[in-house]
Amino acid sequence: MALSRFTSSSTARSSTLLKPLTTAFLLRRPISSDTTPLTIETSVPFTAHQCEAPSRSVETSSKELLTFFRDMALMRRMEIAADSLYKAKLVRGFCHLYDGQEAVAVGMEAAITKKGFHYNCLSGKGGSMHFYKKGSGFYGGHGIVGAQIPLGCGLAFAQKYSKDETVTFALYGDGAANQGQLFEALNISALWDLPAILVCENNHYGMGTAEWRAAKSPAYYKRGDYVPGLKVDGMDALAVKQACKFAKEHALKNGPIILEMDTYRYHGHSMSDPGSTYRTRDEISGVRQERDPIERIRKLVLSHDLATEKELKDIEKEVRKEVDEAIAQAKVRSISSEKERASVVGLKFSSESPMPEAHELFTNVYVKGFGTEAYGPDRKEVRGVLP
Amino acid sequence: MATATTFITRGRRVVSSVSRRRFSSSCQNAIQQQQEEKSQPGGGKSLNLYSAINQALHIALETDSRAYVFGEDVSFGGVFRCTTGLADRFGKSRVFNTPLCEQGIVGFGIGLAAMGNRAIAEIQFADYIFPAFDQIVNEAAKFRYRSGNQFNCGGCLLILFIELDEISCDSAGLTIRAPYGAVGHGGHYHSQSPEAFFCHVPGIKVSFFLRELVVIPRSPRQAKGLLLSCIRDPNPVVFFEPKWLYRLSVEEVPEDDYMLPLSEAEVIREGSDITLVGWGAQLSIMEQACIDAEKDGISCELIDLKTLIPWDKETVEVSVKKTGRLLISHEAPVTGGFGAEIAASILDRCFLRVITSCRLLLCLFLSMKKSSLERMLVQPSNHGVPHQRE
User: Fold this and answer.
1) Interchain proximity A355–B376, CB inside 8 Å
2) pLDDT digits over B51-105, tens only?
């Protein structure tokens, strides 16, 4: 549920706490830095609509596979941490977890080019689902998910106009796929041959409603009719990577394409949804056993003898430690001033966090200098001046 | 005829006189007798607000086989549990999940109501109502007017009574329920109070009987009675539920079928120095303000408006003529808010009576709010009342 131009952040759905972590792990060398090409077949063939499916043989390397493993383990750990932080009331607001779908984010990121790293989303006021990262062309998530698809068409038009040979990935889920806005966006992007890749992350439940209860045709890759589509195993990071590479070339040459990522979310839609009222526990554990994206990479690494079982376990331990450290750091970071920070190190942060400055509430409503003044109840006392 | 009219608001009376029909609701007389006692505390089981809504929906479906409940995730009980148990009791054909498409939900509801049914649509959060804005403003509100009363989404099903000369009209209609307002941690897409947008629909001013109602209850007892009235009202109604109170507000709610009058404000606290007007979740904050002000020797009269369009000007007018001062408080932003509408109307009616200018105590400008900041700055607190002393 995120919208990305040119490149995408793999951490769209988790907490801000993840941000410092990602920097940390990028600086560390993986166990294996072996980049010798390795060809691996995708779990299932691609299913194509109005286009020729790409090959099942994906080129990768030991380094890439281990990076996938580490990235996904880190994401999984962070989601679990966000879950417990939320339940401990340390993370407020709404919280939507992504565990189970890691392969989509990781595979997509492997297929695209990155530029720059700026983790500057800390001052945003959106909360869960609303992360932005301009430096990498990540235009963020939007609360009404269908609404971000036409927005993606606008990005793609600008890209096409400036002839910079880049594409837009507009992400949505099987729930948002039933919004009328998607079809408006499809028409616009096909009419003007925009380099837009519409990625439908089909986790089979739109909030609490199973896809077959909400969609006459759950074949989302076909629902563009005149827009080509590809159905991809979204639990297989390599298949996602292959599909995204293919879609990029296609979009630059021919215009829009839909990628349907067949994936699964282990948790409920949000924290108020236990995730077990509309599906069986057997179904969830079945997917965990058969299709888990992390386990799939673990098996590949072991069967190709790229690392030992112990080395993989060590990676997981490291990841766990990193997450714990980042949480501890975040607890301190949430204290705004240096002085206050020094005084509360080692204390529980929830009760110690100070209130944000009052003027923060009015920041970024309008462009600086073009806003208005807000008054108190008597209309005499100025309560806040928009910066 | 006369029995029904005391309960029915001016607008409805226009309908009945124009169409020469009256409402068949056999319970109408009973309702009228009941409404006095039902709006007073005491009696019934202790319920919170979402359970009271749930009970109202059970009654609505029970008493009318042409009533339907639909929306996102409603068959599992909905995100706020308001529709719990409905699908089990009334079946999947009458209580069903829709895809995530608000425009589709409301448009579908209009069609369903136009065929003489009671369509009860749920928009999961009031913030999600905007994709459906066109359907509500252009299609639902003006269907009757555009078609010269041939079609509407607050339809009338004709029932011939035993006395053949008396044609009765059993109202059908569209009710759109949506949780609104601050909840303490909602963020942009889960906290807005969009009532003023719907109060601006021009059709309302042209004629009473194509009005679109905007109703906001303050407590469980109120919620149940008002929701049943809305569902049974022959006009499209937008019913905003204060999500902050879903679990927080608990009171004794009568278990039986009762309705509370729409477009009738209620004086919930009498006073002589100043009139306070509000609706929904804001009432509890204002009530506390009244108690605080009393300690300072200020006697506050508190009015729950309940229905915003058409709103009960008379009750507010009588009160302001008595106190000479008016303070309005709502969660929605100041500019273009419904508070300004009230202030302007009352100033017009009570120009020679008001001692000081009307005061609006509202959300400081923003509609978005986050965590603790939200509670402190955005939700109007009770600090403003002492300012009125001067």
Assistant:
1) yes
2) 999 999 999 999 999 999 999 999 989 989 999 999 999 999 999 999 999 999 9
> Which residues of B are the active-site residues?
102, 190
Sign of CA dihedral A306, A311, A315, A320: positive
Contacts of A377 in chain B (CB under 8 A): 359-361, 380, 383-384, 387
pLDDT higher than threshold 60 for residue A8: no
Q: How far is A355 from chain B (nearest CA, A)?
A: 7
Amino acid at A66: L
Task: Give the closest-approach CA distance of B101 to chain A in angstroms.
Answer: 5
Same domain, A294 and A228: yes
Q: State how far residue B365 is from chain A, nearest Cα, in angstroms.
A: 6
Residues A359 and A328 in one domain: no
Residues of chain B with pLDDT under 70: 1-43, 154-172, 202-213, 356-390
Taking CA atoms, what residue in A is nearest to B80?
A272
Q: Which residue of B has its CA nearest to A173?
A: B100
Nearest to B371 among A92, A372, A383 (CB): A92
Question: What's this model's pTM, rounded to 2 decimal places?
Answer: 0.76
pLDDT at A113 over 90: no
Nearest CA in chain B to A216: B99
What is the pLDDT at residue A257?
97
By the CB < 8 Å criterion, does B111 face chain A?
A: no
Report the pLDDT value the prediction gives residue A100, as an integer from 0 to 100. 92
Which residue among B76, B97, B131 sits closest to A214, beta carbon to beta carbon?
B97
Predicted complex ipTM exceeds 0.85 = no
Q: Please report the DSSP string for B150-168 in residue order.
A: S--SS-EEEEE-SSTT-EE
Residue A341 resides in a domain: no
- Assess whether A213 and A163 both reside in one domain: yes
Burial B276-301 (b: 16+ CB within 10 A, else e): bbbbbbbbbbbbebbeebeeeebebb
**Which chain A residues touch B365 with a CB distance below 8 Å?**
362, 365, 372, 374, 384
Contact status, residue B135 vs residue B107, Cβ threshold 8 Å: yes
List pLDDT tens digits, range A182-239. 999 999 999 999 999 999 999 999 888 889 988 999 999 999 999 999 999 999 999 9
The CATH code of domain B2-253 reads 3.40.50.970
B101 to chain A, any CB pair closer than 8 A? The answer is yes
Query: Measured between alpha carbons, how far is A203 from B228 in angstroms, rounded to an integer?
Result: 38
Contact B101 A178 (CB under 8 A): yes
pLDDT at A328 over 70: yes
Please confirm whether the linkage preceding B217 is cis (ω < 30° from 0).
Answer: no
A249 touches A187 (CB < 8 A): no
DSSP H or E run through B148: none
- DSSP E strands in chain A: the ranges are 3-5, 37-41, 47-49, 57-61, 138-140, 168-173, 196-202, 205-206, 209-210, 229-233, 257-262, 373-375, 382-385
As given in the structure block, the two tokens for residue A324 are 């714990």
Q: Between chain A and chain B, how many beta carbons pairs sit less than 8 Å apart?
A: 113
Q: How many domains does chain A have?
A: 2
Characterise A5 by phi-psi region: left (phi > 0), alpha (psi -120 to 50), beta (else). beta
Contacts of A206 in chain B (CB under 8 A): 99-100
Cα-Cα-Cα-Cα torsion A47, A48, A52, A58, nearest 10 degrees, comes to: -40
Burial (CB < 10 A; 0-12, 13-18, 19+), residue B82, is buried
Query: What is the Cα–Cα distance from B49 to B245, expressed in whole angstroms?
Result: 6
Cα of A316 to nearest chain B Cα, Å: 33
What are the residue boundaries of the structural domains of chain B, listed by start?
2-253, 266-389
Among residues 188-207 of chain B, which lie with CB inside 8 Å of chain A? Answer: 188-190
For domain B266-389, give the fold. Rossmann fold (3.40.50)
What is the percent of chain A where pLDDT is above 90?
54
